[in-house]
Structures
1.
Amino acid sequence: MSGHQVDTRDGRTLSADRLLAIAAAVLPCDLHGGGGMVGDLLLDDQQRLDERTRFVARNRLDAILSATSEEIRDHAAQLLESRGEGDLAKKLRSYDGAARLLRQAPAFRDNGLVAEILDSARLDLIGADLPVQAPADADEASLLAQLVDSSDRLVSSAAVAMLSADSRRRAMNDQHGLTGADLDAETYYRLVWLVAAALRLGGDTGAQSDPIALDHALIESARRSLAAHDEGERAEASAARLAQALDAKGDRLAALMEAALADRRIILFTALFARALHVPYRRTRALLLADPEFLWVALRALDFPRETLAGIGYALSEADKRRDVERFASHIDVVMALSRDDAIRAIAPDMLDDGYRDALTALGGKERA
Amino acid sequence: MLEIPPPAVTARTDLQGILIEADNRIAELNRTAGGDIGKPVAVPQLAALVRLALRLRIVLSRQIVAADGESDVELWVRVEPDDTGLSLQVSGWRDHRDWPVVEDAAQESDFAQADADWLWETDSALRITALSREAGAKYGFDADELLGRPLTRLFALSDDEGGEFPILDALASHGRFDGQVAQLRGSARKVYLAANPRTDATGRFIGFDGAARLIDDSSHGAEPEGTAQTHDDPATAVDSAFGARLEKALRGPLGRIIANADSIRSQSDGPLRQDYADYAADIANAGRHLLGLVEDLVDLQAIERDDFDVAVEAVDLADVARRAAGLLTLRAQHAKVTIDAPKTDEGLPATGEFRRALQVLVNLIGNAVRHSPAGAMIWIRAERDGDRACLIVADQGAGIAEDDQARIFEKFERLDTADSGGSGLGLYIARRLARAMGGDVTVDSAPGQGARFIFTLPGRD
């Protein structure tokens, strides 16, 4: 049976000349994926991402990049059309390589956006793996539902905001529909300008029409996106508000943090932790993800009872493959033997303000070990 | 309905982790691992948890997989330290499978989700913990006002004809429910509610994953999905609304599964460990298989409608047979079976719908491939018999006893119940299609003598 002919070349054609040109132009640094493969091979297992994290983080990154670049590109094209720059608009609309251009740029790697997405994905995955346990009393409402009932209006509304942000994020995870609204203002600001620049570099193909018009349209479009950004709906922002409203200390804080883990609200747990330590959320999250010992010593610095330390350490070890629960169990007595002051001193360097720390480094000062 | 888990079995150790007493089941498991009362716990995963609990001194629970003789068993273990030692509670005792089997409950949940107008979730106390955001704006309620509040603040529940509340029954039994009629508070709109229970590893209820579907004014009073309506054949008709819902629920996700699995298998985004690529190939094949079953069910639903009609075209049955054989070449090669199709210069003019005729022949030849031993031949012969055009598919398989020859054309019948390769609808659909085109599918066979399936259509001169 002969079926219809199928073009197996995806419609792209290569002339012989082009083929020869491509072969001749391979630079030494293009071998081994531009050094990426060699770097990957040399990484310690501890430093490598597992497939699941890589998949989730990559999907989120791609989703945010394409959503943002489409938004800026399409609005800029509209502006160009309304100003009589139809050709430029058309070229811009047809350009879909902004995300790729950004991913390959070294500057993109270092600007904190990717780290933010990666850390948020890693934390969410740990949260998803937290042990599921029915409450002792089935008629007792879950933590956030109880907080919604609080007579304190600030607590109640912050709890609602958390549930709302969570619903949104979950619905989006299912469809990978993440947008810039999930980023904090500072990260989003950097992203928007990078995207606008990428569109400029890719969208301008040396057309006869006015490149200045392209610049203006992109800038206006970027500013519009920035103005519309509302970071208040982010789960992290709601969690910080709730932690602030609860203003918990001592035993109450310990109980809340354990309850947050039991209700599998890891973002709330991290926010409570961050507030207690007077460290920004992002840094707390990064420390939680990077350094298993940090958690133990920091919980000691908060003067939590042994049972709380044990409970939190166990739950997180079950959920986070990088944590060794045996090691934790062997060292818990050592940690508890530390004085509270010693514990505070031990984590002090980790808790320096980022701005302060960066400035120290810039002026040539060494970070304290 | 959730299965009621068997009651937990218990055991105790002292402060050094030595087993001092144990219910029979745990004692047996422990003995199989080489341990005994008066010695340290021998089941490695249990021992690890015991040691952890002795050092951490808090209640710990964990799901573990332990060897139980030749097989593995999944257990849920809870360990509680006290002044003199540890108490262990072990429940679950489920066979461990390497690949998680999709629970019926999860499948039902997927159907409900695909079909719903919006989704909701509660905790164990039936407080709303998640709600589709757009739903509020669309259907006139403020989602923010309802988060954390009791479910009944959103829905005013109605009893059904028997005075029952499906949701209450489900709550009592921690099972799933559907068809619960409710009214959206603050509006006149009515919805059907359905939900699946979420449970922890011991089987305790932790909340509902729910769906809401608006009740159309036109279908008000109509039975919700799952209840069979009478059609032309009261005993076995498939409700056409159910069929449509099934198709919608399954096609999309299946398509995505196959596409994604194929792209993983082809390693188009970068190299992958070979076993992952192989798993992906398995997933894609299973997905295709399922899609085939879905398509059978969709066909079934189509051909059982009163308004089912076929086109009247001029077809060449010999050509159709060659095409069908071609489509099955790979499968035949894989099964080491040779198909002897009509030669290219042979023709057999007939009247029917090309697409449907192809479908019938793919089914008949596919069956022949499936039932032929390795090394066998399948002959396809085109013959004219008076005013009928006959296409005969003959195989060298095991043959079909006379008693079974009528049965195989019935719905959901398969002679070999262990053969999960198909839906049991193929021959039923093939015959219905043939008859709709003015022809038929018949069989001529005896055990040990292979089978000849004869597809006839009105002949054309």
Note: The interface with chain A takes residues 48, 51-52, 55-58, 60-62, 119, 123-125, 127-133, 143-144, 147-149, 199-202, 204-207, 276, 322-323, 325-327, 329 of chain B (CB under 8 Å).
2.
Amino acid sequence: MDETLLRNLTPSVLGILVRRGIDFAAAEDAVQDALVEAVRVWPVDPPRDPLGWLTTVAWRRFLDAARADAARRRREDLVDEEPAPGPAPTVDDTLALYFLCAHPSLTASSAVALTLRAVGGLTTRQIAHAYLVPEATMAQRISRAKRTVSGLRFDRPGDVATVLRVLYLVFNEGYSGDMDLAAEAIRLTRQLAAAIDHPEVAGLLALMLLHHARRAARTAPDGTLVPLAEQDRSRWDTRLIAEGVEILQAALARDQLGEFQAQAAIAALHADAPTAAETDWVQIVEWYDELVRLTDNPVVRLNRAVAVGEADGPRAGLRALAALDDTLPRYTAVAAYLHERDGDLATAARRYAEAARQAPNLAERDHLTRQAARLNALGRR
Amino acid sequence: MAKYLLLKHYRGGPAAVHDVPMDQWTPAEISAHMQYMRDFAARLEATGEFVDGQALAPEGTFVRYDGPGRPPVTDGPFAETKDLIAGWMVIDVDSYDRAVELAGELSAAPGAGGKPIHEWLELRPFLSEPPTITE
């Protein structure tokens, strides 16, 4: 039983049903029923055309449900006969589903949940586990999201940027719980890249692949964070890096730069350095300048200060930092790092301890506390 | 079975016997402490007594209603607040004695110099559902 095949087909079937004019929530229920049926039937009777099979079964399930509904409400004229077979599925069906699930009328958390459920084909339980919330809570979030998008028509293409933001969010929170959301985000972005030719989709896919390639080296066996400079680069996945770089280069060649391509370019420069000392920080600063131009995001300026500290020395980095708002998340951690590079260990230790108190997650808090402890131990010698 | 909350305080409880701020430990001592906490939670999962564990950021905000049509009032964080909760673990155990035993173990987590911290943990019983059989 090929579960991946089933999950890859889910968005196409759902897209076809929705394009036939079925209400989104009803279509989703029908597709889930068809998937359950496939799991039961396919092992003994594999279909020649899996997509056609699923579409037919889902359509029948929808008709059954609609008839039952109609009978219940004494409205027999709702749906009576099966329409002529619909058009063959096109990439547009899948694409339309991405746009619908990332619709701007949804909150970010709803769009993420709906995308994982409807496009990704994950169960509500899996999504709930991944985000560490009760299953009933996630079920409500998804059904509210379905109701929100149910009335929407999607004959017009949406804004691909909204879809990319959702996929980026899924990837970025990808390491909590037992569900591998990072891998799922990559799968969904690959599928999107196959359906639409867009340099920023390629840019995001490249960014994900390049970061995913470092995953094994990012944490020590005891779960502590290993900073980029200290990672064992032999544990980076060279196959993923090569693929990411290739996708990025093809995207950049089209000369329509966007923020994800620029971020991927920075990740590629890190991936390209055989040792941390050989990192091309000058080029990285140039890419951060592009990113500042594209997004004017204060967090980007903060990361740029770190790069400036490497390219032009810690004093230059501290000067770049001084121009920024000191309430930015991770500002204090960056200050601590630059002070350490500058040789001011006492200030660095104090700021690391301060940064630990402000840390947004346990892994970072432990890491920053350790940095403070390391410098304090040096100071006692 | 009865559920208990094990509360860890940044401050507010009596001072730990072996009270040294964590940034004054060595990195190896920090690792040993973290490992102890992880092992403790894993052991409780294995015995079927673990329910939940969470850590909190040290600073928060106080919020209250300010009347119809008005945004809520926020205040804080207050540097002078006496009691500061660091995190909790919820356990589901057979008896009060078992809860005390586990809290004692958790308080023995190693700190500076590898010695047990002896920190004070607050043990609070959950208010449960009323029993079905009452006579």
Note: The radius of gyration of chain A is 25 Å.
3.
Amino acid sequence: MLTKLLKYEFKATARLFLPFYLVLLVFALVNRFIDFEQLVAIDAQVFGFGVLEMFGFLARLLYFVLVVGIQVMTLLILLQRFYKSLLGDEGYLMFTLPVHPRQHIVSKLIAAAVWITASGLVTASSIMIITARAGMWEVLQRAVSVFGSAFGVTGFFVFPGALLAVMASGILMIYAAVALGHISPRHKILVSLAWYAALGFASTTLLFIFLTRIRAPLQEITGVINDGMAINLGIVWYVLLPAVVLGAIYFVLTNYILERRLNLE
Amino acid sequence: MSDTILECRNLTKTFGRIAAVNEVTLSIPRGNIVGLLGPNASGKTTFLKLCNKLLTPTAGEVLIAGHKPGNESKKLVSYLPEKTYLNDWMKVSEIIGFFGDFYTDFNSGKAYSMLEKLNINPKDRLKTMSRGTREKVQLILVMSREAQLYLLDEPIGGVDPAARDYILDIILENYDPATTIILSTHLIADIEKILEQVVFLKEGRVVFHRSVEQIREESGKSVDSLFREVFRC
């Protein structure tokens, strides 16, 4: 059932994301070929004032608007796919399917994580399109080899793993806040926002306590796990462990509300 | 297999201080077309949502073929809500694929043949359809399942009188005597001819539950006139 949910989740979201990505990459290409010196020269020769220069500037501005737009859109769609498709009118369909609520949460979470990653990669690619210069590939390769010698092969798994865990925990915090807002009889959106702030505050406080109190024993554990790489990789565990624990708490909370306290009004 | 398809005991749902469904105790046997009748705000929609686990009861319980509402009951129940719940960007054919993917009892051949009879193009997107047509699509999807229990909330409420007869025909055509249909409405005269049992709901309580035959024998009245008598303002 999860694969079927994922199939429809990606179908519903790809139609929104893919055209946006395409526009961003096209604008990056346009910006790549904008040579302001040349535009100024043509302007001086042909128009006598900065017509092309203005268009060039506009293209650059639009590119930045698109970059910001994609990040905002990713967040909004992530929210909308949970709020509208589960707790809005579409929820009447989704919650009458023979599917467990936890599968709904997992499918939304996987799709959201994939799109956040994709939006990040497309944005990074668009920046590369604009800024790529000869010798850049070598610089990148050197950066990878420096990273490899510092953290070893494990680093290539642990760092993205930690990033993914932090991302998942962040998404699940949003879901938990929306679900908590849902059980309020009134002002659901406002209550969700208040819960988001409260969960954010509580999580940061817990993270702070964790970092200050449990530092020493954790270093021992990571020392064993990483076999000597604790000095470098140990820091990741401080991020990874709390993210996994908090993410699990948010997941259980959201699942409990969708399973036991659902009220689609 | 138990003879009872739906059973509730002291089922209650309150919103603030208002009890939308109030200590309802009810047992519906298999193989009946049951009218859930009551004026506006009598608790019909809330009752059907409780049976589908879209609302959590404040007290009491409901059992579908012995199961508490959940994954098992959802496999048995085909529910038509009073809302339009479909993605409007999807084509009808895609929604049929969606239902086929999730419900093992969904018969897509049946759905396509009903669409054809109602002149609805499966390639059309819901976005381009009128509200009435969308409601017809929803009813077709719901009736194309070979479920044990159909819960239909106002299936004829949004369509014109000419289409009502056709919709009732769809319901009857797809009705297998082993299954049960519970449909809520306040348009009693239109559906009276297909009903076998009626449940009157008033302010969230069951005030009356009889077979249509019993009503005719005991009072000599039609369901419609009995309804008008019970709910006279």
Note: Chain A has a mean pLDDT of 87.
4.
Amino acid sequence: MPDLTNLETHAHDVLVIGAGGAGLRAAIEAKAFGADVGLVCKSLLGKAHTVMAEGGVAAALGHVAPEDTWQVHFRDTMVGGKYLGNPRMAELHAKEAPDRVRELEAWGAVFDRTPDGRILQRPFGGHSYSRLAHVGDRTGLEMIRTLQDRAVALGIQVYMECTITQLISGADGVRGGFGYWRTTGRPVAFAAKAIVLATGGTGRAYEVTSNSWEYSGDGQALAYEAGAELIDMEFVQFHPTGMVWPPGVRGLLVTEAVRGEGGILRNAKGERFMWKYLPDERRAEYAETDEEAARWVTALSQGHETDARRPPELSTRDNVARAIYTEVKEGRGTQHGGVFLDISYLPAETVRRKLPSMYEQFKELADVDITRGPMEVGPTTHYAMGGIRVGAETGATTVPGLFAAGEVAAGLHGANRLGGNSLSDLLVFGARAGAAAARQASSKDAQPYLDPVQLQGANGALAAPLERPEGEDPYAIQRDLQEMMQRLVGIFRVEADLDEAIRQLAELRRRWQVVKATGGRAYNPGWNLVFELGNSLTVSEAIARSARQRTESRGAHSRLDYPASDDATWNGLNSVVTRAADGTMSVSATPLPQMSDELRSLLGGEH
Amino acid sequence: MPDAHLRVFRGDSSTEGRFEEFDVPVEEGMVVLDALHWIQGHAAPDLAVRWNCKAAKCGSCSAEVDGRPHLMCKTRLSDFDLEQTITVEPMRAFPLIRDLVTDVSWNYEVNKTIQPFTPPTDVPQEDWRWQQEDIERVQEYRKCIECFLCQDVCHVLRNHETERPFMGPRYLVRAAGLEMHPIDQADRREYLKDSGGIGFCNITKCCTEVCPEHIKITDNAIIPLKERVADAYYDPIGWAWRKLRGGDAESGARAELPVLQGNPPQTDEAPD
């Protein structure tokens, strides 16, 4: 183990951990407020999971539907989240998203255009109007490249391929982070007056996922270990449409834009099954017949207004995912355990223009020409609605000096996220967290002192898996974790399974504590996996315990033993996960922040 | 299905590299990256390989497969004769870090030298209007996922053919996206000619051939930029005309930018 007498240490006013959309946006804002900013990421700059976002960024610009306003966007977000979102966050998000999108354009983003030359917007599930600014089906790439180039232009210091394994704390809150360089394996420390976590989600805990290896819940686990609260962890979004065939691409995302452009879901018997899964209270918002849905698609593609209502495929993601799962479970699935998603009835040229990367993805990876025939799709683990509890205005966590934004933070999406709201989330709250962190940093004079005892502890934990003479391979434990979470804590949950999951997680953690990484320090992915696996175990336990506590079904959390929403007990209550004094995980519930009368009136007295 | 036989480069900059062979069980639709993941999970947990999205959207998993540059996440095993061994090596234009991972940091340094997007200061943003057909070319450039395969195969960079700096195809594409943006005000022609070394490209189109995003790098980005540079510096009539109109090569906002230094550091050749 290298000693720490010459530990490489960097000091910044604000340290941002994670360089996807939220981290980049936070860094840019903190820099604009005059802070000296360091930005750390596990991968190369510009490779973060934001590039996978396809369909668009939701903002009530009103370019396609002039009647769209922040008030409607607010209501859609709250309704989509089953009234469990933080109302103040939903309000700020809806009000500020248009400015954050226009700002991207001023920084060089080139969105698709309306006929009158403005930013074009497309419809998406759960959004009342055409609201998603987009670039074909590669909106996330456009956003991350724009933000990346902006950060470069501002001269922000970026530390690429650097894994943070522990936060360093003091009596006054967080003071920095400890980690190591992927390329050399050498330890490195960062001292900072304020830290923004923007590390993304948790999907790697599952076997079938649209998420990359980076999504191991690092930020959630780092914050939890530092004493922060996690909320809403039971709400894991299973995206309705992932690829199911061939096996190597199982789980890979098929953008909701396919349905936004008119894609039809059918089971193996050819039935358009979404008609029967529309919730009664929302049925009036959807077309009644195939003919009405077809008129809506035609009007969309020709850019004219229509009185036709949207197709049933544009129901919210939780609902569509359950519908597909149920169709397959009841024996109406395709040969490979999915359902059909068909856009091939539109002109081939339109499909290629509107969905170019889907066209390529299916052609190259599945030998399917989506302009000629249907795709096979099924649910895939996609997004964590839950995460670190933050203040709406600032992204401040419950630990002083520690902020969080983007998927790692919770609150905006409640029990279910609407498509397109994650990209607007990371812009709005990335900027807010960056500004708040810069303000916090400016209130402190001296660079914080990093406690050498904590640094030594972190350094020992870093080296331990390499120095153990023997132990289990981390990949084997990861496979077992993913298989178990998929089977026991998936789309439909039941108490006995959740109990079993919690028991098995304890056993997996015992195995993890004596894990062995073979090889050396330089760019060793097995060694890196050890730390990520520890984080995955922590967030998996938080998911399982929160899911067991919530004895009802709501949004993305579906309990077979409690199939209905239980408003008397659970409405307006968020699950909270904290680390108890003895190091065990404790779960409780807390009421939602109060809603102003103005916001309440926007929900039309529904809640 | 029979196993695939992979021959994978192992080693780092301080030791002599070698190839290790692995037999990998094949599933339908499997790509080279899946085979490497299987090797990590079952035979060589420390095998170094970059990857992220596994969907050809992030450009992380670039390598040379049987001597040809590929994104490994979209290179299917079924495209190879599985009776034969498939050789996987790191990109050769960049210094080796370990196994299949190379040091691509020079590319990020090039990016810092390009004048960023410069919108007009006298037109309010609410008045910005441009048509879809005016941006289709710019959107083509912006499809780039920064896999650096074009930089890897560019013979100017790969063979270190020049002592003077050359930004390479990736950054010519980026510059084209800025230069041809409908409202960008900066003028990067002097930079392209002098610092960027655009003249070193002799349009062999190797970059276009390997682009996983099918960007017509040479025809649609580099040649139009070369024409703009030629108009500015080698065409006296065009030069005089622009002087009269006021749009000469001095116009446009300029920020203090670092100057492009040299080419990627020399790399030790991987053994054959």
Note: Strands of chain B lie at 4-10, 18-24, 62-65, 68-71, 85-89, 96-98, 101-102.
